[in-house]
Amino acid sequence: MSPSDGKRTGRTKEQRETARELLDAYGHTYAEAAGIRLKDTPQPLYQLLVLAHLLSARIRADIAVAAARALFEAGLRDPRHMKDASWQQRVDALGEGGYRRYDERTSTQLGKAAELVLEEYRGDLRRMHKEAGGDPGRLRRLLQEVPGIGPAGADIFLREAQAVWPDLAPYLDDRTLDGAKRLGLPADRDKLAGLVKRDELPTLAAALVRAAIDRHVVEEVRETRAKHTGRS
Predict the structure, then answer these.
(1) The 3-state secondary structure of 183-229, one letter per residue
(2) pLDDT for 224
(3) Would you give the distance in Å from CA 26 to the centre of its chain?
(4) What residues contact 210, with CB distance under 8 A and at least 6 apart?
(5) Alpha helices, H only, the chain
(6) 15, 88, 163 from 205: Cα distances, Å
(7) 48 neighbors 154 (Cβ within 8 angstroms)
(8) Model confidence at 4, in pLDDT bands (50, 70, 90)?
(9) Closest to 68 in 3D by CA, of 86, 56, 50
């Protein structure tokens, strides 16, 4: 082994350990935080779409997660119930979760989005996935036809949906790569994906997003790594 090969191997080992520290501390998806038991079935996929919509606004992630939980607890767990609810019922549920800054506009968008999902896909986002034909870029564009879902919302959905739609993996968008850079991990999708098991990609993506938006996440992982390195 040449010296450069040894350095490369050592660097990869350190990166794997950093990724593991990150997952140990922040290894849960946003869907899990919102109480969504994600499966390849219509209801949880729709709930993920709602969550992606809420998370894509300029509002704290914990508030978006709480608002999603409040909507689901109010019985708005599928597009039919979301569409049939009144505008005020949706506003009230969003307010219950603390999502007040954008509640009125979001209520309108959620109603229109539910209508589109019902009309275009008969309430089943698996039909959208099938229409995309295994092309993540095409699926990203289709998602953005849903009212309230822009590029950020589509990325959020796809990062989490790769847990049940393996053809999307590795879905590591620019936001996840920003988090990787902050942690000294490779800003390359394939290399980054190679640091963890395939079924850990959704949790890695969510954890990297947290690192991208919260410097305390980066500091905590670095401190933990320093402690472990000091003991080795």
Answers:
(1) CCCCCCHHHHHCCCCHHHHHHHHHHHHHHHHCHHHHHHHHHHHHHHH
(2) 85
(3) 13
(4) 26, 61, 179, 217
(5) 3-26, 30-33, 42-55, 61-73, 79-84, 87-96, 103-121, 125-132, 136-143, 151-161, 174-182, 189-193, 201-213, 215-231
(6) 15, 35, 11
(7) no
(8) very low
(9) 50
Give pLDDT tens digits for 9-48.
Answer: 567 899 999 999 999 999 899 999 999 999 999 999 999 9
How many residues are recorded in the chain? 232
* Cα separation, 155 vs 177, whole angstroms: 13
Please give the backbone phi and psi of residue 141, each rounded to the nearest 5 degrees, phi first: -70, -40
Instruction: Please tell me whether residue 166 adopts helix, strand or coil conformation.
Output: helix
Instruction: Look up residue 211 and give its two tokens.
Output: 């690192």
Largest Cα separation within the chain, whole Å, is 68
What is the rounded distance in angstroms from the CA atom of residue 108 to the CA atom of residue 113? 9
